[in-house]
Amino acid sequence: MIGTEKPTLYSAVNLLPELNVDSFRWSRIPAEQVIASSAAAIGARGIKVLQALDGPEALARIKELIPPGSEVMNGSSTTLIEIGYSDLLKSGQHKWIDLYKKVISENDPDKRAEIRRKSVTSEYFLSGVNAIAATGELVSCDASGSRVGAWPFAARHLLLVAGVNKIVPTLQDALQRIREYAYPLENARSKKVNGAASQIGKCVILSNERQPGRVTLILVNDVLGY
Fold first, then answer.
1. Domain residues of the chain, as ranges?
2. Cα separation of 35 and 97, whole Å?
3. What kind of fold does domain 12-220 have according to CATH?
4. Which tens digits make up the pLDDT trace of 136-149?
């Protein structure tokens, strides 16, 4: 299925024709009852769930949640690009401290790596989600860990954005979705952008959050990301 938000060159719709993946199984909008019960299951695990009708509403939620003057960092995320968050950061039309800008402004490779490592402890870390189990677990993987390092503990506030197309019945299905759908798409994107293959290097399963208010999921009623 194709989302209604701004597709990019590397959105799923532009990569799927060259891949043999089952997008009908792994990327569709579930029934309203499934979305509602999944949101309740996520909430029961200590994760605040905010629902948004579309990308612009999700972006508006982000603006409401992050106070002016806060440090922000984000992992690589097609979802964040599609809802307009990346364009907002690039425009400078915000009142946050953009740590990613500090990372790319450093020319020394060792210093840049150190800034990137510390950036996962930012006040607000934003990320997409690779899969959501209807039982409430949130799962994400990447090659190096730079995107998922903030998830378990490092970031003061973890702000996640995901389309409802990421919802699958069980945790096992969530892991299978990553292997059979999200990874092939990310691998194709990485080859085009970086000239190198990706890999499922490090994964985080967010099953329970014990710190009230630390993790928020903005669940968007659309098909977004991988």
1. 12-220
2. 34
3. Rossmann fold (3.40.50)
4. 999 999 999 988 99
